[in-house]
Amino acid sequence: MALLKGTLDVLVLKALSFGPLHGFEIIRWIESGSGGEFAIEAAALLQALHRLEERRLVTAAWAITENNRKARYYSLTPAGRAHLRAESAALRSSVAALRAILDTR
Amino acid sequence: MTAHDEKARRAFDLGVRRPDLARAEADAELAAVLDEQIHHLIAQGLSPNAARAEALRRLGISLPAASAQVHRSAEHRERRMKLHEWLEDLAADLRYAFRTLARSPALTGAAVLTLALAIGANTAIFSAVSAVMLRPLPFADPGRLVMLWEENPDFKWYQQDAAPANMFDWREQVSGFADVAGYPSFMSSTTLTGYGEPRMLASLPVTGNFFTVLGVTPELGRVFREEETWDTSPRTMVLSHRTWRTVFGADRGLIGRTVELGGRPVEVVGVLSPRFAYPGVDADVWLPMRWPPTSRAQVFFRRAHWIKPVARLKPGITLEAANAELQTVVARLQQEYPATNTRMGAGLTPLHEFLVGKTRLPLLVMLGGVAVLLLIACANVANLLLVRAAGRERESAVRLALGAGRGRLFRQALAESAVFAGLGGAAGVALGWWGTRVLTALQPAGMLPVSNIAMSWSVVGYAFAATLLAAVIFGIAPTVWTVRRVPADVLRDEGRSASGTVRARRWGEALLVSQVALALALTLGAGLLVRSYLQLQRVDPGFDSRNVLAVSLSLPGIRYDSTPKVLAFYRELERETRALPGVVAAAVVSGVPLGPPTWSSQFAVQGREPLPAGSEVLHREITGDYQKVMGVKLLRGRPLSEADREDAPPVVLINETLARMYFADQDPVGQRISFDRLPDSTSTWRTIVGVVGDERQRGLSEPARPEFLAPYPQEPRSGMTLVARTAGDPAALAPAVRGSIARLDPKLAITSIRTMDQVRAAALGRDKFLAVLMVSFAGVGLVLGIVGIYGVVAQLARRRTREMGIRLALGARTGQLQWLVVRKGLGLTLVGIGFGVAMALGATKVIRTLLYQVRPADPVTFVLVPVLVLLTAGLASWIPAARASRADPAAVLRAD
Predict the structure, then answer these.
(1) Are strands B145-152 and B157-160 parallel, antiparallel or unpaired?
(2) Phi, psi of B621 (to 5 degrees)
(3) Residues of A at the B interface (Cβ-Cβ below 8 Å)?
(4) Are A73 and B3 in contact (CB < 8 Å)?
(5) A23–B74: do the CB atoms touch at under 8 Å?
(6) What is the residue-wise DSSP string for B36-85?
(7) What is the DSSP letter of B733?
(8) DSSP class of residue B131?
(9) Secondary structure class of B223 (helix, strand, coil)
């Protein structure tokens, strides 16, 4: 299932709110969190991460994974955390509104 | 790359990666994600090949396409972050600069103040100059306006006022003139009654076409019409905007109304615009000439020269063409009117040049003064920044070794300079705004022919740019030297004798020498002006200005319409004043010396050949006690007395200069003279009854002119000045005199009340103003120079403290050690003095005409100033030297 437009950034920030993750860990977190409903493509994710980095919502640093491989770890900045709060509230209310409309008989 | 690298990069502000690095990193990241996925799939039981295929399938697009996508987003990120970081860095640099500057508040404060003073002074003076010399006159097409003048080599007259009849002939006969208007060369005053207290208004009569020729449109009502030149039209007046506002409360209904002016009803027909200003003429009210039309044909209309004619050239007519035509007309008039015009020439000058030409030199001198001050301030700030930046050489080297961008280092140096220039500039603009107002308020009367000076923003920009440039050049110079060197060398030097420091020191010394030279040249110029002012102050004006009050009055002709009434008023006033307590003596005079000019004429001595043409002498009318009041000595004969009444035999006093010039080998007393060069049967012959001492009439720098002093009742006039010698403070007498005048005539306005000391000081106003201004500029420049010397020597002393300790331990005497350091300060000062004296010798020639009995190369100034500067510099050098040489050798040697 494809992701709603504009929701990927919020999901990425949400994933990072529990601690630094690298790209594949973020993909896994979103896929498992959605019960496998959302499939994230690697290129799309990296672009989203670059976008967030550019806006200083996340910072990145190369580090070694548990499996001794190199990976670029992303973590949330204070600005990113604030952005997540605001965006998820907005998303929640728009989802509620969507549901209200769709549930109308 | 490792996380460590990334952190270090950010921590040390090493700048953002290049685009190719960003692309490589994005590819590595994409590969890492795929790698993780493949390992994950393998862990779930897929074969390595199947896992790879599955991972690529889940990519959704081809690997090159995915790679291209992340390249774009990574590059975009780097570009945007670079800008962002640049701005952040800038903010950080500025913060850092502020913090370092705040750490040495005295030094920073001094430098910012220096800049502010220099920028402020430049702004104020340049604004005045541009207002006077650069701004066009506030008239329509002012470039086509010219001033016409007459000259007569026989009288040594050049660019003098014209006779009205000649003006009219030029107007009618020179076809290159579109029109010619005229106004008198002196202001009048007239009494306004009916609006509060009787009030004296400065008035100027002009020809009816005056405002039309200037191309001025009024704020309200109309300007004069051409026919109002003649007295066949009713009495009208045009108000200045200021008078309309302050006297008439900006009443728009005033137009068409009649007010009482000079005792007569006069209709207000117009109000001028607030932008109208005629250089050198500050009239409250403008009146039409109202000449009788019959006067055009009369000889006095061509004999008396008292009109300033302003012509407007027709479009396309050049100055040369108009002048050529004027010369033809002048030659014709010389033929036509031999009695008055035989040797009368004429010419024309662009109006702006004619009106503001005289103020040019003092303004240019002030301009030169502030420009030099700006240079000194720039050198000072440059020196300060140089020292700071050189001190940071090691820090720069460390950061360079750690991989910091060179641009970043430059920017940091630049930021510091910018903060300096910014603070100094802001304070300077404020100071300049204030200075412009102060300059306008403090300028002696008539020094600047304009009354409103607006601050010129182009000047602010210019001064600001100059200081910024100096700050930038010298702020980053040491950084340039540092980045060119291998950091390891700098670090190995241990900051002890780094070559950048040596170079900065040498540059600093060069700057200091030029600073001292400039300051000295400025001080020499200021010194000359001060000497000249002191000479002028010592000039004996020929009268004793202490304890004399002078009250000028003008009786309105409508109420004082006969000589007996005028004489009675002044006689009564003199008597009343004499009776006031504290009054030693009182008299009435037609004009005080050093005041407004009085009239002049030629004369004849009975029984002698006519005197050569051009033998002009001044005239004043006095009452008997005038010499007693003014402390002027009677040299021969008798003084005037109350017996010299209007019906007594005509008599006159002459001054010493007149006696010397025209009665060198004779006794003038008893001889008879006439005020006409070629007397006829109608001429009055007056007997010289006495010779009195000279008073300088026209200025302290001008020797006394030959002068007649006639008894006032025999030459009566309505405008006179009461002079009274007091036992105590003359100003304290003013209220009592006002009271007497109000008792004698409650409707009479007083033109002015001044003490003679004030009159004398006002005569020196321009010289004092210029001297004070230049001395302040020079003072600031000198202080900066001396502080600079102190700084250099103190630095030197610090560097050599250890060496001094060793020498002291080896038995050197303190004096010898001090000399080692003082020598440096004195040496730099001497070089500066050498250059400064050379500069001043060249430059002071320019101010020759502003100097009174002081040569441009005045030996007193040129010896005294350098010696004083050298002594001060010596003292400034000795202080740090003494401190260094007093150090305990043991402590110094242990310290390292």
Answers:
(1) antiparallel
(2) -115, 135
(3) 22-25, 27-28, 39, 41-47, 50-51, 53-54, 56, 60-63, 65, 67, 69-73
(4) yes
(5) no
(6) HHHHHHHHTT--HHHHHHHHHHHT-S-HHHHHHHHHHHHHHHHHHHHHHH
(7) G
(8) I
(9) coil
Residue A46 located in a structural domain: yes
Q: pLDDT tens-digit profile of B237-283?
A: 999 999 999 899 999 999 999 999 888 899 999 999 988 888 878 88
Where would I find the beta strands (DSSP E) of B679-822?
A: 686-692, 707-711, 719-726, 750-755
Instruction: Give the tokens for residue B645.
Output: 């009444």
Domain that holds residue A23: 8-102
CB contact under 8 A, A27 and B69: no
Which of helix, strand or coil describes residue B234? coil
- Name the residue in chain A with its Cα closest to that of B70: A47
Q: Angle CA(B835)–CA(B839)–CA(B843) in degrees, nearest 5?
A: 170
**Residue B584 scores a pLDDT above 50:** yes
* Residue B658 tokens, joined: 């007149």
**Cα distance between residue B822 and residue B794, in whole Å:** 10
Count chain A–chain B contacts defined by CB atoms under 8 A. 94
Q: Which residues on B lie below 8 Å from A62 (Cβ)?
A: 1-3, 5-6
User: What amino acid occupies position B390?
Assistant: A
With beta carbons less than 8 A apart as the criterion, state whether B416 and B385 touch.
Answer: yes
Contact A46 B73 (CB under 8 A): yes
Q: Is residue A66 part of a domain?
A: yes
Single-letter residue type at B866: P
Q: Give the C-alpha separation, B35 to B27, whole Å.
A: 12
Give B-chain residues touching A71 at CB under 8 angstroms. Answer: 29, 32-33, 36
Instruction: Please answer yes or no on whether A51 and B1 come within 8 Å at the CB atom.
Output: no
Please, are residues B537 and B789 in contact by the beta-carbon 8 Å criterion? no
Integer Cα distance of B520 and B858 in angstroms: 15
Q: Are B185 and B147 in contact (CB under 8 A)?
A: no
Q: Mean pLDDT over residues B593-608, rounded?
A: 84
Q: How many Å apart are CA B516 and CA B868, to the nearest integer?
A: 13
CA–CA gap between residue B169 and residue B344 (Å, rounded): 14
CB atoms A61 and B6 under 8 Å: yes
Q: Rounded distance, CA B509 to CA B859, Å?
A: 29
B interface mutation test: which of A12, A28, A46, A66 has the most B CBs within 10 A? A46
B80 pLDDT band, cuts 50/70/90, is confident
Q: At what angle do helices B360-391 and B393-401 cross, to 10 degrees?
A: 50
Instruction: Name chain B contacts of A44, Cβ cutoff 8 Å.
Output: 60, 69
| Chain A residue with Cα closest to B22 | A50
Which of B303, B268, B263 has its CA nearest to residue B287? B268
B578 and B740 in contact (C-beta within 8 Å)?
no
Instruction: Please tell me the distance from the alpha carbon of residue B518 to that of residue B496, in angstroms, as a whole number.
Output: 32
ipTM for this model? 0.92
Residue A49 resides in a domain = yes
Q: What is the pLDDT of residue B280?
A: 78
Element (H, E) at B786: helix B765-799
For residue B676, which of B736, B619, B742 has the smallest C-alpha distance? B619
Interface contact flag, A24 B37, Cβ < 8 Å: yes
Which stretch of DSSP H or E encloses residue B337? Answer: none
Cα B539-B638-B593 angle, rounded to 5 deg: 30
Specify the number of domains making up chain A. Answer: 1
Q: How far is B20 from chain A (nearest CA, A)?
A: 16
HSE toward the beta carbon, residue B754, CA cutoff 13 A: 19
pLDDT digits (tens, 9 = 90+) for A6-19: 789 999 999 999 99
User: Considering chain B, what percentage of its residues have pLDDT values greater than 70?
Assistant: 90
Contact B493, B141 (CB under 8 A): no
Which pair of structure tokens corresponds to residue B756?
Answer: 């003679």
Is residue A1 included in any domain, yes or no? no
